[in-house]
Amino acid sequence: MRLIQHQFHPQRPKTTTSSASSNSTMAPRTLIYLLTLAVGSLSLTSAAALPDANPVAAPVPFSIPENVEILDLRTDEDKLSNPLSKRTNGAVYVCKGIKFDASEGCKLIYTSFNAPTNLVNTDYNNVISSAGADEGTVCQFYDGFYNGDCGGQGSLYINHPGKDDFRQYSWNNGAGTWNDITSCIKCTW
Ligand SMILES: [Ca+2]
C-alpha cells in the first residue's frame, strides 16, 4: 500500500487591515452597552474616596468563614440602631497572619461610617498582616490612635479584595512595613 504524502498548507484567513469604515458608525446596542459600563464604573469609583497609593499584585482572594468571630467596634448609636445579629455595612476582614491564614486568628471588624475605629484595646492591635474589606467598602488603616482619631505615619488603603501581605507595603518612607502596626481603621462605603 502506498501512502500519499500530503503536505498541508493552511491558508491564512483573510484579514481586513482597514477597519476605519466599521468604526465610524456604532450600533445603538453597542452604544447603550458602553454607556452602561461608564455609569457602572462611575458608581464604583465614587465609593473610593482615596486611590490606592501603592498597589501590588492582585492578592489571594479571601473567603470569610461562616463561623467568623465578629469584632463589633461600631459607635454605640449604630449598635443600638442595628443589632449585631444583622450583617452591617463597613465590615473589614482582618487576619493576624499573611494571606488570610486563619490559623493565627481572623476577625470580621464592624465599623461605623468614617469613624475612627480604635484597635488599641483589642487583641488585634499591632498584629494585622492581611485584610480585605467588603465589596464597595474602602478603608484606611493607620498605625496610631491619638486624641480620639486615627493618626501616625500615613495610612494603608484597603478595599476589596484587599491586601494579603502587609510586609509588602512600605511604612514611613521605608522605615518599616505595614506589618503588625495597625492600630486604627476608618472605612467608608
Ligand atoms: Ca501578624
TrEMBL record:
Residues 1-23 are annotated as: Disordered. It comes from the Eukaryota. This is Uncharacterized protein. It comes from Clohesyomyces aquaticus.
